[in-house]
Amino acid sequence: MTFAVFDSHLHTPLCAHATGAPREYALAALNAGLQGLCFTDHMPMPAWYDAPWRMNLAELPQYIEEIQAVQAEFAGRLDVRLGLEADFHPGTEKFVEKILNLHDWDYVIGSVHYLGAWGFDNPEFIDEYANRDLDDLYRDYYALVEGAARSGLFDSLGHLDLPKKFGHLDPNGLYALHALDVVAERGLALDFNTAGWRKPVAQAYPAPDLVRAAAERGLPFVLGSDAHKPEEVGHRFTEAIKQIHDVGGRIVTYRGRARHG
Ligand SMILES: [Zn+2]
Ligand SMILES: [Zn+2]
């Protein structure tokens, strides 16, 4: 590959649903031939929100120290960056802003994981899909994505079409295109997230037609495996790169919250 390939969506055991020490992710990145990686563990949120699946506020210094130790260990061999996967959930913006101001992060992904109180990507709560109208679900979901883009808090939008995870495909498509218009207008990038290939839907996020629509709007992509274990680092990146380049898309990385590439 003729450009630096980074995996910019990676978790650590601090979120309580990932395994493997951060240095094992770095070793996996070296083995996969990557030039760099950016850790983006699930950020602390208010205590009432999603507590079992993320680090708490008191653990944030440990996260920073652990990744800085990996940066030092791999200096000169691997470009190790430090970011966060943030959640967009209306009402929590001030809390999120405070966390984002606590450190000089390299990259912040904005993700929507909840519709109201329902964590719709959590396998424990799949049954709830049966109670929902899919058109309404996607309408509400993409309205939140647009809110995330407009909030000004994030560098990219995480796993754009996430509600398809278990196979519940978007019956409409127009809400997604409108959301892409807003994301483009606000100058964010898209997380090209290969985890979808490991889920029941067996499709990366975003879907191929949305990758094309995003490229047409000039939206850049940030490659991410969304690894929750070291062996997932760089998962199917060759295919991801080909898919993006085939539709004329650009691949970028972030450092100090500025876009590179
Ligand atoms: Zn996670
Ligand atoms: Zn996520």
Automatic annotation (TrEMBL):
GO terms assigned for molecular function: histidinol-phosphatase activity
UniProt keyword annotations, A-Z: Amino-acid biosynthesis, Histidine biosynthesis, Hydrolase
Residue stretches making up the PHP domain: 7-195
Enzyme class of the recorded protein, top EC level: hydrolase
EC number, as in UniProt: 3.1.3.15
Domain of life: Bacteria
Known catalytic reactions: L-histidinol phosphate + H2O = L-histidinol + phosphate
GO cellular component, one term: cytoplasm
GO biological process: L-histidine biosynthetic process
Tagged with keyword Amino-acid biosynthesis: yes
InterPro entries found in the cross-reference section: Histidinol_P_phosphatase_HisJ (IPR010140), PHP_dom (IPR004013), Pol/histidinol_Pase-like (IPR016195)
Pathway it works in: Amino-acid biosynthesis; L-histidine biosynthesis; L-histidine from 5-phospho-alpha-D-ribose 1-diphosphate: step 8/9
Family according to the record: Belongs to the PHP hydrolase family. HisK subfamily.
Identification of the protein by name: Histidinol-phosphatase
